[in-house]
Fold each of these.
Amino acid sequence: MTNPGNSRRKFLKSSGSVLGASWLAINMPLVVSASEAATKNKELGAGFENLSLEESVELSAIVDQIIPVDETPGASETGVVYFIDIALGSFMSGAAPMLRQGLEEFQQKTVSAYPESTGFSGLSFEQQTEMLKSVEDTPMFGMLHFLTLCGMFCLPSYSGNREEAGWDLIGFDHRHAWQPPFGYYDANVHGQVPAGGDDHEHI
Amino acid sequence: MSTSESQPKFKIREEVDFVIVGSGAAGGVLARELSTNGFSVVVLEQGLYRTAADFKHDELDVLINNGLMDHPGWNDPQTFRKFETETAVQIQGEPPPAYYARGVGGSSVHFTANYWRFHQSDFKERSLLGPMKGTGFADWPISYEELEPYYTRVEWECGVSGQPGPFDAPRSKPYPLPPMPVKSSGVLFEKGARAIGLHPQPAPLAILSKPHNGRPACVNCGFCMGFGCEVNAKSSTLASMIPLAEATGRCEIRPLSTVFRIQTNDAGRVTEVVYLDSKGQEQAQKTRALILAANGAETPRLLFLSESSHSPNGLANSSGIVGKYLMGNGHSITQAAFEHPLNEYKGVQVTRIVHDFYENDPARGFYGGGGMDARPFLDSTPILHAMTGLPPGTPTWGPEFKRMLRHYFTRKMSVLGSTTSVPLASNNITLDPNLKDGKGRPAIRMTYMDHADDLAMATFLQDRAVEVLGAAGAAEIWREPVEGGTVQAHLLGTCRMGNDPATSVVDKYHRAHDVPNLFICDGSSFVSSGRGQPTMTIQALAFRAAEHITRFARNGEI
């Protein structure tokens, strides 16, 4: 059990009521390899395969609430909407109907709350935050939260994490080999790696 | 994907000496040993034949979408319940209860590679401590001393890096390789542990710290736990044993072969193994003897699927205990953040451990023992960090969430406590009565709830972890709740070994009491759980079993 399993499961359960039964129902397509999607890597500014332009605009606003722009890029600039577009056409295709329906209901709710607005993307950042808080526990938000984190930090070949902006944000330097010292606390130790071998009694 | 050109292609209608089901920690060793000893061997593996070139730093595929774990070709779901009085529910879109990799090399491909030997006490705690009412607490039919030469073979032939510690059982030979370079988590853990009077030691790992047996040293890439090694430095059987088996010219690795029935004759002997090939077509391989090494969940499943008029409760199950006494090792997780970057995403997971609490201590007031280790755990990769790495109460989205991700990723570490599991008949693997896989095979149903003593031991270790991390100067420490495990990567005890056919499934040589030409050797053979890192012992058992099976075969005793 010392594996990612238990904690990931716990995350999925705790992060929402967020995910709940709907999450379970829509995830069967996970058995389809995600790597198929990697071949469809899209350039920024290219058209979407599965999202309408309107959907992409609304999704951009939502994912930028989850990981907003500050001194570093937010989720949409990092390619998360392109990642979602690809995911919904491949390994997460089973989630598409739920997500579409959830977005539609959310849009209606938004327009009822702000009759003068053109939709979620037209609200101020603070108004958007308030609206999203009201749907924090829905499967739609849970799915978008999940996809945003995946798209922010996945391999750039999935069209998210553009120019490794997600990895830069958290300080993850992706290389294929490292030598010690690795961090602040082991810096003084290396050069004195234990010699190894046996200093123990034999049978 | 590749297969060696030296592999023979055996005809399925011609008997081979051995069929081995499963190519993982045990199956890989058995394949190498038996083919080296001159026998013809077919290994049936349900997963793909991937090699190092197929593995990638692809967290989305490997850790989120279970790319190394899912059954290729069709869905093979599982169900879970805590107690036998409940109806098990299908687990979907979450890690499966029985958590294992599919593919040549099995779970040794994706494991974290902690390689602790058992202690002498692990084999005889029932004698040392007395009975535990209502449990399957029992001695093994073999001792540490009998297994010691095979632990040494694992260390030298598979490749283990380490350095003996003050509590280790005696060893006949030094480790072949020095420990892996210590990480910041190891330095901090060592400092904190010493400050409270404990005795930390370098972690023994099945990862090469220097070139060994023609394989290269680890490059500290960090994509270790859950991933396949891209340079063959992790000592999976894919890297260490399978190539040697293939080189004999007597071993065929047959991937994408999912066994669903073991055929027996009227004399009660195994005659052939029926499986589905990569196209979903039914095939049957004839064999003189069968070895099940499919793991502690798949092995009992296959025995249940092979019921017949001779064995209505499942093959080799006259005792009625096939599938029972499942043990997974209890765990506790304690997270901490420090002022400066640790950069735990680099390098192997674990570099320092503490075994001060390995042995049972009556003063604790409950049975058990365990070990502690320092590691990044889920903070070694970005997506899981974003999903699970922040302290309780931190926003999960928005500007503050983003700031916290930026702050914590490089500053985090965890201490894991891992414990004994009391063997309970009520913790088990059975066939789900309702759910089937994509080809109509009944699904694995897991019933599991940790014993109160296991949870108490996990909590005890968490209390110590908080003390250690505090003494190490952590800026923040938080506990993950200790609760019954719902995902088990250690699948132990479900076909336990013993001298009495009424209370065990296999004898001390891994031969099924009921079926003379059936051997079972994997985590299912365990009688007790050890303290949380079982693969070293699974492989020592496999080396030992191969020696005895060879002797039986040469003497005409199979």
Amino acid sequence: MTTVLSAQGVSVSFGAVRALDGVDLEVQSDQLVGLIGPNGAGKTTFIDAVTGFVPSRGEITLGGRRISGMAPHDRARLRLARTWQTIELFDDLSVRENLSVSSRRSTMVSTVSEVLFGRPPRAEALAEEAMHLLELDEDAERMPNELPQGRRKLVGIARALASKPQLLLMDEPAAGLATNESLELGRILRNVVDSGLPILLVDHDMGLVLGICDYIYVLDFGKIIAQGTAEEIRHNPQVLAAYLGGSTSEAVATAEAAEEAAESEHAAK
Amino acid sequence: MSLNQVLVFLLLGLGSGGLIAGIGMGVVLSYRGAGVINISVGAIAMLAGFCYWALRTGDFGITFAAPWAVTLTLIFAIVLGLFFEGFCVRPLRRASPLAKLVATLGFLLSAQAAVILAFGESARPQPAILPGGTVLLFGGAVQINRFWIFGILLAITLLFAGIFRWTKFGLGTRAAAENEANATLFGLSPNRLSLVNTVAMSLTMGIVGLLAASIQSVDSQTLPLMVVPALAAAMFGSFTSFGITFVAGLLIGMAESLLTYFETFSWFPTSGGPGNPIPGVQELMIFVILVIAMLFRASRIPGRGDIIDRRLPAAPRPKAPMKGAIRWGALAAFAIWALPYGFREGLIYSLIATISLFSLVVITGYVGQLSVVQISLGGVAGFTVSHLFTNFGIAFPWAGIIGVIFAIVIGVISGFPALRVRGVGLVVVTLAATDAIQNFGFGNTTWGAGNTGAAVPSPSIFGFNFGSNATFHGLGGGEPSPLFGWFTLLLTIIIGLLICNLRRSGLGQEMLAVRANERAAAATGINVRNVKLIGFAIASGIAGVSGVLLAYSYGSITADSYGTLVALNFIAFGYIIGITTVPGAVQAAVGVPGGLFAFALLDWFGLQGNWLSFVGGFLLVLTLIHRPGGVALDIFYGPPKKPFKERPLGRMIFRPSPVLANGAAGADVTEGTTAGVSS
């Protein structure tokens, strides 16, 4: 395994508020890494810092290349993709266009060819593949606002996949989904990772994170307070005290239910 | 230069500074009370000023004494405020800030046109309501009315500042601006608060209109365009502070007065010979002040917690553009040949306006930046053509090409503010830029036209003249020649098709991605800055082509050909029909003042173009309320589709992914089953 993302001592401050304080985190290839923490712990800020949307201190490398200080679009061009908690689709573009805008870059030559001679933009195999992968083919020509929330989330994920990322950062993809939808999403993410794309997953859904992640970091007040496998996190007293609090048993039960569901489907297969 | 004289001119500036501050207060009241950046506040003051003039001079048939005229004028201002609230503000409460601003533009255009239709274009010397006389200060005579204006507006400022700080009404207005939904839960009525604030704004503008009577004539342009420096003052006050806005407005007025003093010195730059100070320096100063205010204060403008829809009208992919181009192009080509010369002139103007509106389709429809400066960029190209010929003997086609390149350069420079400000902020900056370019650039005899006009040679190639004065006159006879009309039509069709192709191209998709969501666009690897600047370059080039054609069309150009009011009219008609699509631009251009429809109204019914502006302003507001995407969007692309029926994610299929897989085996899931979850 090689290290795809390495964040060392990442700190972010908003005025006097220290949102992230020296966070160290790594994502290895073929790994689904979870980042959990209570509200306001700094999870989204961490994704924003890695993708360049908030200024940060510390060292961030992607595939061994230092990306600290780069503009967000430059990081994206190094195949660092992200999804958003609030989905953030391009509402003026169809689903297909949402994906194709992510999968290719216009060049001077391609623009001149398309504008002067009216040639349509090249159909991108990556965009088509991502659309096919998430069963969005029949929605390809629809506008995002014509789709329900769940499918809009899928378009957001497909758009990120269409850029053929070397790492995908996902910000609460299960937010707003029903339990069965969340479980289904978890299986999809697991399979995406198994197909070779590492993911850093931020989510509140403990069942989802503990159920599918290979390795988990726990963030609280901007600091990493624990890390390890799901089993280690589940029984980490610091996590139980600081994060899970009174709802420990409920969270653990949800996680176990997710595992049981997965195992029973294995057996059925 | 003596210090005493400087102080005298600073004191003289209290008059115009007070008016700017007063109009600035109207801007602040509109923003705090209703969330509207209201560019029609000066027009409301103008309406009040004309009302007072008409009441005092007997224009309505009865001559009123000053106290009665003042009272009736203030009642008129209140009624105007009620109408403004009911027509422009309340129906658009949920609209985007940009739509609200454009609605006030509609009101401005209608108000101006109404005044011209009712009272004519000439300035009316008003009966003053403030005491006359002068006082000797610093060795110079200063009119007493300057101090009255200062004192009255200072009192109004303190009154509003106190009301907003210490009364329940002020607290309620602030709460509703912060979070409308929560304010409603606590029993506040945002509608009522908005109504009271709008009426207060209108009443204040009524007072400003009355006070203006003492220091200047009333006309259809001065007070409405005083909104530009007033916006700069309000920007310094972050659209919320009455005190800072008042002080900034005063200082701007005093600086303008000081510039008037400086113009008397030999070292002041001249234009057109000694003794002719370079025009437009005051407008240029206001533009610079506004840019500074925007750069340093825009981030402090509090966002409002209104419940609003922030989307711009949709920009759908063109359907069969070539088919439409052939059909409508053939019809237009025939009309150019067959129509009588007046109609032909109107049609050619509409074709040139079409190209102008194409530039708005690119910059507003595709990139999402509403820029008022596009028409002025056309002027930059037009004046370049004129001066290249006059000064260097360069004619068609090189003069036109250089003019377009020059427009692109200026356009890209004007696009830099858009990297920092967007939406309503960009409208305000580009409005000031348009005013500055018209006065400082086009009004200048060195690189503009001065007060007379600049000659433009007829376009010809290899000795073949195809300009508007060519000898071929077609079936309808007279000038402009159909040859020039066909040339314009050809360029219109080519540019229209290129814009359709741009929408479908990868670059067009990136523009729409930027328009929809800049953060998400950057996250997908789009360089937002470059896309915006490319958009400005393309739009400026297109605007340059229209400017060059307009110059060739008339054979002589003036500053007014590309002025602020032309720009505002184009934006209004673009918005009414559809500013995001090529068919929308074509239809809007038929309706603009000076175009084919305007000539038909004049020829058939004797109606002047101002009737079109008058009706157009109201139509603009109605369009924003009932057809936010413009009329053409529904006609050509149909109503928006209904939401797709929800399907559960459980039926999702996961297929092998040879393309996405980074060397690893694809997933192994087929329909109805999923791979195991490993943990």
